[in-house]
Amino acid sequence: MKDTFKHKGMRQQLVKTVAEKGITNSDVLKAIGKIPRHLFMDSGFIDHAYVDKAFPIGADQTISQPYTVAFQTELLQIEEGDKILEIGTGSGYQTAVLLELGSKVYSIERQKELFKKTSKFLPKIGYRPKKLVFGDGYKGLPEEAPFDGIIVTAGAPFVPKPLLSQLAIGGRLVIPVGDEVQTMTLFIRKDDKEFEKHEFGEFRFVPLLENKN
Ligand code: SAH
Question: Which tens digits make up the pLDDT trace of 66-83?
């Protein structure tokens, strides 16, 4: 598992592209410049790793587009030590970005093979989430709540209630909502019952699947 000068060069180009598309948070850009995205994909696809596109990672799933990862992460406004829940671990790339920002990451994946593969892979390259969970993200992770931030990395047909209720006061939920196309949506918890809602542009994600078990 190599990270060469060539990779580093391509990565700086990717950072530039993502910044040109409107990402300004310097910590987020730094994370994208640091994480060897090509290692999160199967070998043979290295030339695709630093293009600003989503890419298949097997099991009908994708590694999200770097711009999308950056956009969602920016909306979370992470501070060092924040407790963050991610729904849809997938390749672990977004997980790595959250860790680079100094947050404590809990992440849920419902696809067994991906869960196993990513659980082994992340520590190998030095990324240690607090907890990786094999399970259904619709339920969140009540035993670890409340969270300062929750990020959903699959398209949700509706906003799961448990995710809202597992936010700390002041916490932020970033979730793409919709069927074919999703609207990036941010909820900020104001108090026990009140949530502020903001909508951003349209994105396309693989669907957040209901648990079939
Ligand atoms: N964050 C990932 C994106 C992966 S794509 C990355 O950076 O690579 C979305 C992921 O959500 C897929 O791995 C898919 O299996 C997972 N997923 C879909 N429905 C889910 C659910 N109900 N609970 C948890 N994960 C789910």
Answer: 999 999 999 999 999 999
